[in-house]
């Protein structure tokens, strides 16, 4: 269950964030190159069906209703794992040069607050799940969905020609069912969470493009097949990082016409003023500095930085240490007849900069 989360927000809080709380130690310190493993090894090489599939569903930190959906859909467990991998790697990549670098390290307190960082986590997690579900449909890893429903394209032809479109329509519909998104309560935090989740889903949708392939003699375009294809997830990550950088602080107001509680930003001076855009990330309170260890962050001490670009900001005015490291690399490579390359091993001295503790 989503333990430790606000009761009003729990039905809306994405499963991946619950997994972040339970498995933070599994990804803390990643550079973005390592694979992520959230389930025990014995199930990693088993097909996502039968007992292995059921075990994977049970071991994930999901609500009871989500576990039921997971058990009913062979292939869903692997898709959930893939979405967590996508969201974590993308978060670490986008914040690699920031004071908060997406590290949790047992600091689930951040998820209980209305910071910009929490908004990004919700958005990138919902985006990753939407993306992974659409890709799982088009790749045949989900039994209850297949290619997108592009007009004039039969599924059998799509598989034969290798043009099976990413089924974002099914993905979005299933995602709302999986997250249990119903009518949002009057609770301000629940409204903010729901808004940021939808920002992530919209970010994926904005990257859906139409791709076409020609069929004909000598490459002619006598017959053309078109299908829907999602952009690489890193494009979505870049967009969400921009949304994070331009996030809007909000408060609640009562609509005089309907009596409903709504989100509003300081730029909205009256009930008839401009409303929040559905693509804007929103937050409730200012973030801490993340410079020193706290319940929200391990701080920046010891973080590697770039002398010319990031040390000044990352080290928070404490300065940085300089060390010389020897690295090995291949050098003086020559091609030998035939098809063989011989290289020497050279040593290179590099300066490495890390933030000071004091």
Automatic annotation (TrEMBL):
PANTHER family: PROTEIN WNT-9B (PTHR12027:SF84), WNT RELATED (PTHR12027). Ligand for members of the frizzled family of seven transmembrane receptors. GO terms for cellular component: extracellular space. The keyword Secreted applies. Belongs to the Wnt family. One of its GO terms (biological process) is neuron differentiation. Keywords: Developmental protein, Disulfide bond, Extracellular matrix, Glycoprotein, Lipoprotein, Secreted, Signal, Wnt signaling pathway. It is found in: Secreted, Extracellular space, Extracellular matrix. This is Protein Wnt. It holds the Pfam family wnt. Residues 1-26 form the signal peptide. One of its GO terms (molecular function) is frizzled binding.
